[in-house]
Design a protein that fits this description.
Elements (H helix, E strand, L loop, with lengths): L6 E6 L3 H6 L11 H5 L23 E6 L3 H8 L2 H5 L27 H18 L22 H16 L12 H21 L10 H22 L15 H4 L12
Parallel strand pairs: 1-2
Length: 263
């Protein structure tokens, strides 16, 4: 991470990383501090390196996209440290329906136009922030983050969403009290989603995020709520929010970069 300016992503279909930070090779003791701190990139990090030169990451950020088996999540939930420190509450969670028994044993290749579209989407998001493609300045120092803003209408949508869901956390009458830790961080994830959708659509970071883009981000958060219940609190409110609803594919079917997620 230090070599690439303090920002890195891990995309994996295995639970190795999650198992490692949950204590697989540390006598069962989770090592979560750096991962938790990298979630919002708000504080510097100086690792304890006794035998090597020390360094400091000014604003470390770690992006995780993991597709793991349910047992991996179950093992993490069983750890008191993982639960108490809210590691899984920082993730946007989804539990897709199993296709076992109906899978195509000869699945088609991903169409070339979809591969190209995804590549262009990722490149648009990156180069809109770093037009020259560089992450370091001429002195070898990481370039500063590029600030983004949301429009007034977009902020109103977010505040309204948070107010409506705050009422659902009422300890006496709320229906989402069992995922209150996740919901407390959902607003921050909503801003992140809105920023990514904004950049992926090709908009410059200097342009405030629109209300339509924020509405799309909030639609994704709402999609995650029943899945989060199914994953983090399956026994507390079984059947309260069934996950057999709209799929992510259906959700994005109308997205064009200027709003249009199915809501």
């Amino acid at each position: 991470m230090h070599k690439v300016g303090g920002h890195i992503g891990i995309v994996s279909a295995e639970g190795t990383f999650l198992g490692n930070i949950c204590g697989r090779y540390n006598n069962g003791k989770p090592n979560l501090e750096f991962v938790l701190q990298s979630w919002d990139a708000s504080e510097p990090w100086r690792p304890d390196r006794i035998s090597r030169d020390s360094f400091e990451l000014e604003r470390p950020s770690l992006a995780l996209s993991l597709s793991v088996q349910p047992v991996v999540i179950a093992d993490a939930i069983e750890s008191n440290a993982v639960t108490d420190k809210g590691l899984l509450n920082r993730f946007l969670l989804a539990r897709p329906t199993s296709l076992a028994g109906s899978r195509d044993v000869r699945p088609p290749h991903v169409p070339a136009h979809l591969i190209d579209a995804w590549s262009h989407c990722v490149h648009r998001a990156f180069y809109s922030v770093r037009p020259e493609g560089h992450t370091f300045d001429d002195d070898g120092q990481p370039l500063p983050p590029v600030p983004m803003q949301v429009s007034e209408d977009a902020e109103h949508l977010m505040l309204d969403w948070r107010a409506r869901h705050e009422r659902r956390l009422d300890p006496d009458a709320g229906d989402l009290t069992h995922i209150k830790g996740w919901l407390a961080r959902a607003g921050g994830n909503g801003y992140r989603l809105a920023a990514l959708l904004h950049l992926a659509a090709g908009h410059p970071p200097q342009l405030p995020v629109s209300a339509d883009t924020m509405a799309d981000a909030l639609a994704l958060l709402d999609y995650c709520i029943p899945h989060t219940i199914a994953i983090l609190a399956p026994d507390d409110h079984a059947g309260l929010c069934p996950v057999d609803g709209v799929t992510l594919r259906e959700l994005f079917s109308g997205w064009s970069g200027s709003g249009g997620l199915r809501r």
